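Before the break, one more example. Copy the sequence into your notebook; we will annotate it together after we see the structure.
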Amino acid sequence: MIGSNESSTEGPIPASYLTFLAYLLGEWTGVEHTEDYLSYGVYLSWVLFPLAIVFILPIAIFFFCFNTSLLLLHIYKRRKSGLNEGHSGDVWYGAKEMLANLWDGHGRVWHGYELHGDENIPEGPALIVFYHGASPVDYLYFMARLLIRRKRYCHVVADHFVFRLPGLKMFIEVLGVMHGPKEVCVSALKKGYLLAISPGGVREALFSDETYGIMWGNRKGFAQVAIDAKVPIIPMFTQNVREGIRTLGGIKILRNLYERIRLPVVPMYGWFPVKLRTYIGEPIPYDPNITAEELTLKVQRYRLDEVAYQSQRLRISAQWTLG
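Here is what the structure looks like once it is written out:
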């Protein structure tokens, strides 16, 4: 008869937790050498742990801030009827200030974000043209810092797919995101708005690389908008924006898939805590005698603060290159 006394004579259970766990798994599954498998699993977990910290933690922090923004907006919406609209008369002004402080704090802590040259932004309307990194997070930091420092709010033109993303309707409304037909942009500028647009759009975000080549193709609608609205164009560039977040845009099949469905299907990775500095160039004034094609070329060849480019790790040219 086999009893508990007999089983205890087979030897003491090892004190090591890993060995004890391997012993239990071996008894339960009947698989031999379970301790070797467990040791290998523990080894892999230690090897992959730094990668999890590098890739998962930054994304978790970003989405925490994003979801916090949505939560604060819903709370604000419930209470906004009894809140002061502020000096701007904008019912969402308090929410904009709240989000600005949240995202400015994220930019300060995670990227040591800096904004240079904001004195080049006039008090009146203007069209800001910027290079589109893999993520628009640098624009969020710019928008937040500008509102805090200058009490100026900048609207932005976004791709149509943004308006189809679930749960973002209120966020888009508060940020002043526009779909961007030419007539709407001209009307906004004539009302005195500050408007930002990236001619390269999603294509530039996904498929440009660490050489910072712009991908505008034949797009010149932004130039026509500036001409029709009679406003200056202000170039903007964020240093290291490609070093912070990267994409797998070099994979040809992903490029073909994007051109077919026009959705951002290219995976991103990184969210590294690199230093981000946004540089605002001197305005290109309105010229009634210039065509949209000529103005587009002028913006493409415009030299932003040379320091912004020379300080890049690759020391790329100070001139934007055609993609």
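The chain has 13 helices and nine strands. The CA atoms of residues 213 and 248 lie 16 Å apart. Try to locate both features in your own notes.
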